[in-house]
Amino acid sequence: MVVRNPVLQALEGSEPFISGFEDDDVQEGIDDLLKQVKEAITAVTSLLLSTRRAT
Asked: pTM of this prediction?
């Protein structure tokens, strides 16, 4: 059974939603926010993998 981490699920779910605003000139800070979400996905994934290896 695969148990998904709710934080990772939320981040991965928000990425495509936020990406939909990339070409919207009215929205400010989308590129930075998307970069932060992608970095957080990488960090959480890395943390989860290292935790699984330790057990």
From this structure: 0.84
